[in-house]
Amino acid sequence: MVNNIDGCKILRPEITRFELIALLAALLALNALAIDIMLPALPDIAQSLGAQSENDRQLVISTYIIGVGLAQLFYGPLSDRFGRRPPLMIGFVIYVIASFAAIIAPSFVTLLLLRFVQGMGTAVFRIVGLAIARDKYSGRAMAEVMSLVYTVFMIVPIIAPSIGQVILFAGSWHLIFFVVAIIGIIVGLWAYFRLPETLAPENVRPLTLSSIFAGFKIVISNRFSLSYALVGMSLYGSLIGMLNSSQQVFVDIYKLGALFPLAFAGSGIFMAIASFINSKIVRKFGMQKVAHFAILIFIASSGLLAILSLKGHVPFVIFYILFGTCLFMFSWVSTNANTLAMQPLGKVAGTAASTFGFIQTLGGALIGLTIGRMFNGTVTPLAIGFIISGIAALALMLVAEKGKLFGTIED
Prior knowledge:
77% of the residues lie in helices and 2% in strands. The chain is mainly alpha-helical.
């Protein structure tokens, strides 16, 4: 495959659809790995580096996600100007260096700073991955591909906490950052040697302030796209709230102890199955119908969990069923909402992915941080956070669709 940007030919071998899906999933998975592999180690990290309170351990997750959110705003314009590959390689370098540096962090504040920098490196993976998918596909075909990407990607959240737990059995939390760095190097080499440049020469945008702001204006002024991006932000906030407090919910409330990684893996399985099913049904029913149905079930399930939690302790089996249903529906909503947001913006795919990534990640991190910091020894804050996020997402869908649900758009 040959792409020409500014007269420079970039030769890359043809990549199959299967390998492209696997590689895009690996890019997204590095982000999840840097979050989920840390979960079993949060108490050890906090104790080792002198965190002030129990809830401060959540900052190891939140500062990383905030770094991801802020940096995404810059990678999009860069990828629309220089192509998808150069910013991606820069991201890998930042990610790996920050991971190695975290091993020798002398204090909790220093570690949080390095997690922020690590997130700034990882930010490019989602931006470039989504832009590449939009470069090559559109409409329901893109939704199908992204569903398959998320199906493969979800393997990491399923197994990452277990990997983290095994590493803790073998050594200290420092070893986790070493493993994360090595995996980053491996995926980076894979991308360097196999990922082709997908930005079409006619879609290259100049890197000037006027061009950047014009691109952002195109993205922000599209009511349909922006509304669905905000749907993703609202739902992502509930997911981050769950990640922030998952160790406390499963270990402190339900006393699962070393079984925590297995319970967490089960939640990932719900999402992986949902993504796979979405890839099979989205061509038939369309992105909007699937997303609209899913958000209603999400609200109903989280609402029931909120009611039960307000009445007292929710038995684990009931909690896990309702929690799993929410995650299942979350997967349907988020995949299709992100695809719908990108659909009208193919000519500014990098800037669109950057803008939406910034909004969703930073906004979601702040929502999730709020939910996590409200943890009070019960599942009530988590349940209420889910239902508020779901209702907000439904309202945004109505804005996008001018008050009507279960419609379709032309592919």
